[in-house]
Amino acid sequence: MTGVLIGFAIIAVVIGAGYLIARIDLLGAEGQRVLTRLAFFVLLPCLLFATVATADLRRVFSSVLPVAAITAVICIGIVVVAGLLWRRPLPESMVGGLGAGYVNANNIGLPVSAYILGDATSSVPVILLQVIVIAPIALAVLDISTSGCFTLGRILLQPVKNPLILGSALGLVVNLAGIRLPAPVLEPFTLVGAAAVPVVLLSFGISLRGRRPLAAGSDRRLVILASAVKVLLMPALAWVVGAFVLHLHGHALFVVVVLAALPAAQNVFNYAQRYGRGAAVARDVVLITTALSLPAMFVIAALLAPR
Fold first, then answer.
1. Does the predicted model carry a pTM greater than 0.85?
2. CA distances (Å), origin 242, targets 197, 222, 245, 307
């Protein structure tokens, strides 16, 4: 469990630094907005391009991918439908759904993969699924529902207009074409992309000043549902799909369940901030699931880790 503890400790320290920045008003009133836009339009696209362009795509077809896809669709769908039935707007419902099914496969998933699962690339299929499939669809819904324009042309133009989708798509093209980018070409993307995670975490920390989870007016019902689905239902679904549909056992089953127990990704908060909808929901779900996912992983390890 050392890797999990280290990953959580690093995240907590950087979020705490962001909170301190807000407390001393270091960046002013527009600081968080500037960081969010910098991450969305520059840092994250570079990170996604460099990650996807150099990934081993053969791992996408491992047993992790179908389990991750099925559980994500079910969990996101449950919360989105519930939000709409509760008469919540579509953007807020979509943000809640992402909190329930879009996992932190990068800055928590990678150390968990390395130190708990024994393979640092175990979470790569989840990263690619989220970047290439889930994020484009969710961002298209957010973009269209916040702009009020529901045209087929606007939907088809999403990959061209969204920098996150562009970064991941270009990386996929380079990878599939077998192009090995020279180090001097790839290094600027790697260098700039390396700033994405800390900047997003700092922005998240800044947003915490004066906030507490489940505060009045924070859409508690949606937050509680999304958090419960993420922490409890998603790992349970992964176990059911892995054991009874794909007939996984031993280490393979342990891998898919642990990956499903990862907390909601900070990117959900970044997306909510970018579109100006559901930020409180995203912030609370990320905070709650990050706090609860570690105990969940301990339980999973006790029950399923190969002896």
1. no
2. 30, 28, 6, 19
